[in-house]
Amino acid sequence: MMAKTKTSHMETTPEFTRRQYEFAAHIRDPEHKPAPGEIEDRRMAIYRELFYNNVEGFLSSTFPILRKLYEDQPWHAMARDFFAHHQAQTPLFLEIPREFLGWLENERTAQDDDLPFLQELAHYEWVELALSIAEETLDRDNNDPKGDFLTGIPVLSPLAWHMSYRYPVHRIGPGFLPDEPGKTTTNIVVYRNREDEVGFMEINLVTKRLLELVSENNTENGEQLLNRIATEMSHPQPDIVVNGGIEILQGLVQKDIILGTRNRK
After folding, report:
1. Each residue of 191-244: pLDDT tens digit?
2. What total of structural domains would you count in the chain?
3. How many whole angstroms separate alpha carbon 155 and alpha carbon 85?
4. Could you tell me the residue range of the domain that residue 250 belongs to?
5. Rounded to an integer, what distance in angstroms lies between the CA atom of residue 126 and that of residue 105?
6. DSSP string covering 67-125, please?
7. Angle at which helices 222-233 and 238-254 cross, to 10°
8. pTM score
9. Neighbours of 84 (CB within 10 A)
10. What are the two backbone dihedrals, phi and then psi, of residue 259, each rounded to the nearest 5 degrees?
11. What per-residue confidence (pLDDT) applies to 69?
12. Of 66, 93, 114, which residue is a domain's last?
């Protein structure tokens, strides 16, 4: 009895589908994947440029600072590497920058001449787009922006994201290229206000801790949260922390980072 031979997936794929795979593979990686033989190169060149330029242009507009820091050759080498090898998980064009960020963090092989802050700067720049298209809305009805933070429960905007970086990403540009992380972390809150404008604000450790507690809290009022921070700091005068924290919360309301207060249910 003759042994059965194993057939590959491509051998059982219809001819038209195989041609589509060849076409797409060449568009993504023209240096290593030949074009379908029956299509003249002049026509293929139009598709090669169109697809790549669309993706690269969107990356450049989403990561403008990163783009300025790279000469043309290394930038296009990185963009083409992403275009050729990353398998996107969504067809949505606005998700390309997030796919690029994930590729930088999880798939790309680091290069000897990489900027040390490459991933952090890319994340910082991506956040602006992510917030601008986020579908969450600000609750205007169930929160009092003039509420008393001593007795009321502070409410954090769903469109306010606080994060920490090893590098001072908000200062990086052609005139400032740090070789090493900062001596302390850089804490930033990025937010979208009621006018749908995206803003950035550097915050200190106390404000960062306050936002962390507010984001996790459903029962404690502002005074209780701030007293907890004073305890964590072993501060000899908790009232100073509480009074300063109330001023911080009131300032954050003006930026729609804190929406106000709500009463206990």
Report:
1. 999 999 999 999 999 999 999 999 999 899 999 999 999 999 999 999 999 999
2. 2
3. 43
4. 153-262
5. 13
6. HHHS-HHHHHHHHHHHHHH---S---GGGHHHHHHHHHHHTSPP-TT--TTHHHHHHHH
7. 130
8. 0.84
9. 16
10. -85, -15
11. 97
12. 114
